[in-house]
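Re: the request from the purification team.
They wanted to know what the chain is likely to look like in 3D before they choose a buffer screen. I agreed to run a prediction and write the result into the notebook, where they can find it.
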Amino acid sequence: MHPQSPANSLTSTTSTRRSVAVFDIDGTLFRSSLFVELVEALIREGLFPPETRDAYASEERAWQERRGSYDAYLNMMIAAFMRHIKGVHYADFARVAERVVERNQYRLYTYTRDLLRSLKAQGYYLLAISQSPKTILEKFCKGIGFDKVYGRIYALGPENRFTGEVVDLHLIANKANILKRALEKEPITLVGSVGVGDTESDIPFLEMVEEPICFNPNLALYRHAKREAWKVVVERKDVVYYL
């Protein structure tokens, strides 16, 4: 099945503003997590020590065995990342990020990939908002047509080495705040807007757009979507289901 184009899209409401389509990336467009792939690559490349995995291995196993949550696993990995990123040179980090993108640039869900292409062809302004590092997001999103990317920015200190701090964490943690900032800075409008997310953390920005799409949602987002009569789409193997 092919993704349905938004019924009420208006991509040229004025001469300067375009309807915006907002995408979460990890687990929504990319069939994994850029952050997870990056951390594993940093370990393989020797920029992070091998024992980095010890910090999140048990949570990862619990998640894989359906005894624990993905959030618990991811939060432990984030904590490990923050401990070990301090002192890493940006050039080395960017090199590893480039390799991760090269290996994974075509690892996309069919539904969201085709939806992205359709919206691009209609003249939408494509906006990516993610908790993954902006360095890898920009490399990944550039090749698939996004106009603007918002992700976590990690502070740099002397000699262009990471300090272990996140810039404006309070802002990037709330995707609705990011969308509001984009509306102020970019030539976009919410008229005819589309949003695609997969977890409850995406609800704030999905509530702002005219057509929210919950793609492969977790339980919390699924329940919210059913209450609000939002579109729910699931892609499993080579089949796309509209719930």
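For the purification team: The CA atoms of residues 105 and 143 lie 8 Å apart.
Please add any questions underneath this entry.
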